[in-house]
Specification:
Alpha-Beta Plaits; 36% helix; 159 residues; disordered N terminus; BLUF domain-containing protein; BLUF_domain; 23% strand; five-stranded mixed sheet
């Protein structure tokens, strides 16, 4: 007969809880264009990520999502599964997955790109491969630099 034991640091290491992962994906914004649907989805994910100790930087435009989220290996895997399940019309294109030493962001950060001069500078001049903002035309390095530039003032060296 097996008895339930509490999770020890050694048992957590068996599932990868001690390894931090960063995942970046892009997706077309097809079902959450704006307004109440988007607000509800953002609040759901903010709470979910907070409860699961995941930090995130999300850029939303009229047509695209670009998101980096960071947390433990099991938390990131579960979050990705939940994203795929909850938003069946969003097909994320994973740009990069890598192990990291510390979280880059602090909390659940969201930036909605507008037609302001500063947003156009982020999206078009420095990082886009074409004349219009399209993350599908950007390399993984450009996408990562884009996210860093957009959230430059909100970085966290440790979490």
């Amino acid at each position: 007969m097996r008895t339930m034991t509490s999770h020890t640091p050694e048992s957590k290491k068996r599932n990868g809880e001690h390894i931090l992962i960063k995942m970046i994906y892009i997706a077309k914004n097809v079902d959450l264009d704006s307004g109440i649907e988007l607000t509800r989805a953002l609040e759901f994910w903010r709470r979910y990520f907070e409860e699961n100790n995941i930090v995130s930087a999300l850029v939303i435009s009229e047509d695209y999502f670009v998101q980096s989220f960071q947390g433990t290996r099991p938390a990131i895997n579960t979050a990705l599964e939940k994203i795929l399940d909850k938003h069946s019309t969003i097909f994320p294109n994973i740009v990069n997955i890598e192990e990291i030493e510390s979280r880059q962001w602090n909390g659940f950060l969201v930036k909605h790109l507008t037609s302001s001069a500063k947003d156009e500078e982020y999206a078009l001049k420095s990082f886009s491969a074409g004349s219009d903002y399209n993350p599908y035309l950007m390399t993984s390095t450009q996408i990562e630099s884009f996210l860093t530039a957009v959230f430059e003032d909100t970085k966290s060296s440790n979490f």
